[in-house]
């Protein structure tokens, strides 16, 4: 889906790693939320509270989940991260993403 309808957006940005990763939070009528963001080239590590589905819209990156090997994710690809976990990213070129927070 390339467009979200009937949503509200938090005006303030989520800014991480000195502005190299930014996103905006989108709230849906059913109470779910997603973030849409951009990641600049670099190495990052994130912690999760909720289970997440990361969809890669464009860019070049590798992901490493806890206890797993590095894996390349192509544009159009996705990966899930368990709740209360972490993951590492190697961003090779500017990457556009959509993160869904799952129950």
Automatic annotation (TrEMBL):
Q: Which Pfam families match?
A: Ppnp (PF06865)
Enzyme class, UniProt record, top EC level: transferase
Reaction equation(s) it catalyzes: uridine + phosphate = alpha-D-ribose 1-phosphate + uracil; inosine + phosphate = alpha-D-ribose 1-phosphate + hypoxanthine; thymidine + phosphate = 2-deoxy-alpha-D-ribose 1-phosphate + thymine; xanthosine + phosphate = alpha-D-ribose 1-phosphate + xanthine
Residue ranges of the TM segments: none
Catalytic activity, EC: 2.4.2.1, 2.4.2.2
Looking up InterPro entries in the UniProt record yields: Ppnp, RmlC-like_jellyroll, RmlC_Cupin_sf
Tell whether ATP-binding is among the UniProt keywords: no
Write one Gene Ontology MF term: purine-nucleoside phosphorylase activity
Q: Which UniProt keywords apply?
A: Glycosyltransferase, Transferase
Gene Ontology cellular component? cytosol
Q: Does the keyword Transferase apply?
A: yes
What superkingdom does the record give? Bacteria
Tell me the HAMAP family matching this sequence. Nucleos_phosphorylase_PpnP
Family listed = Belongs to the nucleoside phosphorylase PpnP family.
Q: What does this protein do?
A: Catalyzes the phosphorolysis of diverse nucleosides, yielding D-ribose 1-phosphate and the respective free bases. Can use uridine, adenosine, guanosine, cytidine, thymidine, inosine and xanthosine as substrates. Also catalyzes the reverse reactions.
PANTHER family, from UniProt?
Answer: PYRIMIDINE/PURINE NUCLEOSIDE PHOSPHORYLASE (PTHR36540), PYRIMIDINE_PURINE NUCLEOSIDE PHOSPHORYLASE (PTHR36540:SF1)
Q: What is this protein called?
A: Pyrimidine/purine nucleoside phosphorylase
